[in-house]
Amino acid sequence: MSDGDAAAMFSLAGRVAVVTGAAGLLGRQHCRALAEAGATVIATDSDAAGCAAVAADLRQRGCTSTHAIPADITVLDSLVRLRDAALAIGDHIDVLVNNAAINDRFDEYDEHDDDGKQAARLSRFEHYPLDRWRQALDVNVTGTFLCCQVLGSEMVRQHRGSIINVASTYGMVGPDQRIYRRADGTQSFWKSAAYPTSKGAVLSFTRFLATYWSDRGVRVNSLSPGGVAQAGQEPFFVEQYARRTPIGRMARPDELRGALVFLASEASSYMTGANLVIDGGWTAW
Description:
Layout: H1 6-9, E1 16-19, H2 25-36, E2 40-43, H3 48-60, E3 66-68, H4 76-90, E4 95-98, H5 107-110, H6 117-123, H7 130-158, E5 161-166, H8 194-212, E6 218-225, H9 235-243, H10 257-264, E7 275-278
Parallel strand pairs: 1-2, 1-4, 2-3, 4-5, 5-6, 6-7
Helix pairs in contact: 2-10, 4-7, 7-8
């Protein structure tokens, strides 16, 4: 690539990219960003219908090299089947976006119990259910580990690849519990320990793998979003989040696309073991 060929550095033409958690709010955007940059995209999710819908939507947008392959990232055999299917499509794997994660929601309790008091109680650290803790670590940490082990090893074999582990600002700083507090002083819920703990582990794992595979042509970085606007968020929460953020609002789901393509492409060829923070300035304060 010649000096100054900036546009070409961001191209993913000829690359095969696997995105986990593809049916989620950000997963859909990650798939679209990579596909529009020229990659053949493998959209994977435990929700088979969801990832099929993502692939169908992208094909309708003209991104014809998009495929849906459902998988459970916590099950080794499922990931082996995903790897083999991806290799059958493109013969190589160049980009892995570890996006799949559990982020606690306690909405289900609001519909059945005490005006949401059960949600506030169970989300407190003192009462947080052990099964939720274990499930979050299994998906967010072990799932990322297994995806890198199974799919990343293909990158090692070909001596080329970019792994992007989606972390969070809450892997860097403690949750501000005040933004989940209503005007009357009651707490809608408490941000639990599971998500920040798991995302902190993802950041550490990123640094480990970046140094471990540094001589094998595989770059490993993390992408840490702040809060992203989505349907169903309580107005008081959106307002308080905005006040807490220097840019003054939550992110739009599409505002991570550029950062993702940067990390996936040769534009970030001298970057590994780093954490790219896209949070509207949240962690600057």
